[in-house]
Amino acid sequence: KALSYINKQYFSDANGNRGGAPNVAVVLVDGWPTDKVEEASRLARESGINIFFVTIEGPDENEKQNLVEANFVDKAVCRTNGFFSLPVNSWFALRKAVQPLVKRVCDTDRLVCSKTCLNANDIAFVIDGSSSVGTGNFRTVLQFVANVTREFEISDTDTRVGAVQYTYEQRLEFAFGQYNNKAELLNAIKRINYWSGGTSTGAAITFAAEQLFSKSKPNKRKIMIVITDGRSYDDVRAPALAVHRQGVIAYSIGIAWAAQDELEYIATDPDKEHSFFVDEFDNLYKYVPKIIHNICQEFNSQPRN
């Protein structure tokens, strides 16, 4: 109940929450909770709150039979690596926990529940599988997709990734949350089979909106990365405008024969921050750091809970 209360009441703009600062809750528990903490903790984590548990003493043998959740700390924290939990033997020993706790709270790199640019997104890759790409180049595109993905924190409560491949038609390769750890996700990207066909980029954008972004979580930023090597056979302007209006941040990556005007229509304004072009597939890798940087810079400049 206490975790639910702080999640709803404390960390809001109205109560002075600062967008750029990590949110931290330090919970001092004497013994054990008498209600369940798992669900309340999950909601708090999804809101970007880093929960630290300081547990003082523990239940004695007679009390253990009344425990509701014996491993409540592991269920409550972001990572079960010991970083977010400090067991203390007695109230008298509590002062010894001050410095270790302060050190951890100040280690912003390890506050993995904070909403950061790396764990606050639903990212959809919209991948051109047309005949002009070719099998070898398609593998290069998938490597680019994997390299971008690798930079993010991947889990159901962090960043989720989905992928659509398109020609004249569209195919959902995998949905948001289908793969919830990085290793599985990178393997799924590697396994995408090249399709070959025409180039209907506009229809692919609409398809991604329907199949992926309609299932986005409300507290996640929606990011679309369209990769294409040619001019579309259909209109891209109206579908792109529609997803922009839905709050999707769109990046366009053009290769070889991609049309500059279409890349600019697809991309969120300003175009120079969201639209990129390379002459050859082998040069795609150069834009990985730039895209990550822009995603993070944009995220950090926005007010957030």
UniProtKB/TrEMBL annotation:
It holds the Pfam family VWA. Residues 1-105, 122-291 form the VWFA domain. SMART domains: VWA. PROSITE patterns: VWFA. It comes from the Eukaryota. PANTHER family: COLLAGEN ALPHA, PH DOMAIN-CONTAINING PROTEIN. This is VWFA domain-containing protein.
